[in-house]
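Entry 14. Two folds queued back to back today. First construct below, sequence then structure tokens.
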Amino acid sequence: MPVVVDYRTRPFNITSISDSGKYVGRSAYWKLYAIENLIRILVHSVLSAQINPAWWAVAVDPNTDRKVQMVKRDYAKQPLHSSPGAHDIYCLFLPDLRKIMSAHRHLFSPIIPDIDQWILRIEDIRLPRNIVGHMNWLNTADERQIDDTYSDLMALMRRLPRSGITLTIP
């Protein structure tokens, strides 16, 4: 099977663009999808347990909530399009989720003692996530960082139920 390379490094070829997209999707996009959604589940589950299931009104700052409400209004104006999700958390990006975790680290730290390291790791994959989100190629170091974050987050999520946290989908 031929090696897929970034289409931007070769003369124009329609097929190489599709091949590039398939490679990026197969190598990185699905892991970023899992990371971002697992972080949503993590935030929702911890704050539901530590505050209450209606944690949003207590834990999210007014500016972030305003931004989310604007996003929801935009989607409501176009009902034929897909919705990001029923819970407001699905309108947030990784930096927003990181800010919530950081602002409420005291609620996360009893369950995740290395929460500060997780907050940093989420920030560290922000730029590689944006590269993939804008349909571009990652370098080897960014691919490795995403792979490691994915593996470590999967291990963390498997341990959480033992700490008394019920993982719930928002």
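Second construct, same run, same settings:
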Amino acid sequence: MQGDHLLFRIEAPHREWDRLAGELFELGTLGIEERSGEGLLAYFTPEPGTERAVLALADPARGIRVSAATRLPPRDWERVWREGLAARRVAGLWIRPSWVPSEGMPEIQIDPAQAFGSGEHATTRLALELLLGSLERGDRVLDFGTGSGILALAVLRSGAGSAVGIDVDRVACENAASNARRNALAPAWVCGSLDGIARQASFDVAVANLLWSRLRPWLPRLAGHAKRSLVLSGYLYAERSSVARALGDLGLEMLEERQESQSGDVWCASRIVQPPAR
């Protein structure tokens, strides 16, 4: 990798680490180190606005301090970032980086790199629980905002007939495709928005693990692709009323909702069903 890197030191209570890691990946971090008793080290390529966005994560009320960026010469950030990662079991499925020994079957190997989705964030776990808990063999699944491809690959490993993963981020698309090859699974990938698939395309299940602000404009279109059910993850407890209003406007019914507290936030996910045809 060519060029200098920016290093940010983030001091925070351990309970904040997972949430901060998720936000750092959203901002495009190259990799994160966890330093016991210290906090997080996050690496970035120098881009306009990066330092301001990372410094904005500081929150004295939560005990979060972010140092000004230190410029570093090029380094093997991936080797450093890999240290300390382990296999995790979520919704009966083992998820591990390819360099970590297997803990059991069924499993998928996910190397998240710069794309969100390794099973370590509450929103991913919630989405997996709702997806795999209601999946029917042979289902066609649409994964909007696929990131590392974890949800699309998980449903294929669990018996879905097909899966399509969509993401606007080119790096995420490349990472998802790499993870698919690693698992010998073959979802279809669309690098772009929902406009990249035909409006009449129909799926048994559609899922989106995205921040509510990013998902909200696409919700009507996404719901239109879901024949049986829709799984939404990535919204906060404080946003539940906004989600409920948006679903009500579309005539959709929330069948099940789950919540998980992580790093001081309460994240939510829901399974929505299409109303009976009249």
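Quick look at the second one. The radius of gyration is 19 Å. The domain at 88-273 is CATH 3.40.50.150 (Rossmann fold).
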